[in-house]
Amino acid sequence: MSKSRYPYAPDEFDAAAAEGSPAGVHSLPRSGWSKTWPFLMVIVIFAGLAYGGYLMLNHFRPGSDPTAETTKTTSAPPTTPSDPVTTPSEEPTPNTPTETPSTPAADVNFGASVRVLNASGVAGNAAKGAKVLTDAGYTSVVADNYTGDKLPGNTVYYASPELESTANDIAGRFGITTIELVPGLRAQVSVVLYTAVG
């Protein structure tokens, strides 16, 4: 169609655009930032990927131990047996015990209830046994006769694990070697005497 037959009046879209832009384009011209930001984004992404790859290659390099350097720098220099330097705390003090002797009496419960049971047939044997314990410091001791099954010999029974030291102390005072844990006793510790107390 020729211009002479064009029925419309010329407008701004019919004029040639500057810098060779096509006529009739209705969009606004692009700003400098909208032209630049895609290139900047590509540069940033590639820089991040390159840095991440560098870190991964150095961290997982075969034969490298990332803790080796730390171990080398923090380890103390080896000491030789011929080193004459000693501190006063390392030298043993003569006639000084290295450990404080333990006191088994600290675990003994002198307030525990104790029954001394006479199985010897000797009158007053339980009372003699009870006196041995009260003289030793036990405060809740009862003497009675044993009416249970026949036992192999003198025996000490205790009702709970925390009374083991107390039972051992009582057994030692009578020379008794048979000591047993029996929950549900009438007293916390029971002593069955088959031999007469001297």
Structural overview:
- The protein has helices at 32-59, 68-74, 125-136, 164-174; strands at residues 113-118, 140-145, 155-158, 178-181, 189-193.
- With 198 residues, it is α/β, with parallel strands linked by helices.
- A 5-stranded mixed β-sheet has the order 2-1-5-3-4, with helices on one face.
- The longest helix has 28 residues, at 32-59.
- The termini are far apart.
- Residues 64-74 and 80-104 have low confidence and may be disordered.
Topology, please?
Layout: H1 32-59, H2 68-74, E1 113-118, H3 125-136, E2 140-145, E3 155-158, H4 164-174, E4 178-181, E5 189-193
Parallel strand pairs: 1-2, 1-5, 3-4
Antiparallel strand pairs: 3-5
Approximate strand percentage: 5-15%
- Please trace the helix and strand order, writing H or E for each element: HHEHEEHEE
Helix-strand makeup class: alpha/beta
As a whole number of angstroms, the C-alpha radius of gyration is 50 Å
What best-fitting shape do the alpha-carbon axes yield?
A: rod-shaped
Q: Helix tally?
A: 4
Give the N-to-C terminal Cα separation.
Answer: 146 Å
Average residue-wise pLDDT: 75
Please give the share of residues in helix.
25-40%
Uncertain spans: 64-74, 80-104
| Total strands | 5
What is the strand arrangement across the widest sheet? 2-1-5-3-4
Largest pleated sheet? 5 strands, mixed
Quick summary:
The chain has 198 residues and is α/β, with parallel strands linked by helices. It is 29% helix and 13% strand.
What keywords describe this structure?
29% helix, alpha/beta, 198 residues, 5-stranded mixed sheet, rod-shaped
